[in-house]
Amino acid sequence: MSLVLDSSSTLGWFYPGEATPALNELFDRVVVQGAFVPELWKIEVANSLCQGIRRRRITASDRAEALADLDALSISVDRQTGKHVWLETLSLADKHNLTVYDATYLELALRLSLPLATLDDDLRNAAQQEGVALLGK
Question: Which of 58, 91, 95, 121 gives 62 a disulfide partner, CB atoms 3.0 to 4.6 angstroms apart?
Fold first, then answer.
């Protein structure tokens, strides 16, 4: 079984001092089983890595290495994300007081009946209320 991977888990794996044993185990699983992400995942990850350079948390070389590592993984981008934003995703955002960005990951996990890997506390709480299995942290 695969999983839905959010940007917080992805970035936690790369930023110095943020990786935990649970995150390392999660990415071992992604290496073997792959993962699913919504269309906005690449944008969120790229933006956060860009900000990481600006804030001097990582170097341009670190970013290039992180992107190469991610590119080597079997991560499937869900091309149906946009079809669900104005109904299911907005409904989840409203119901759980989430950003639409975070609700996108929850909607995908629900639609694919997969566990969700996130470090975001609000998203974790919403996933638990929706009966979605959680990974990471």
Answer: 58
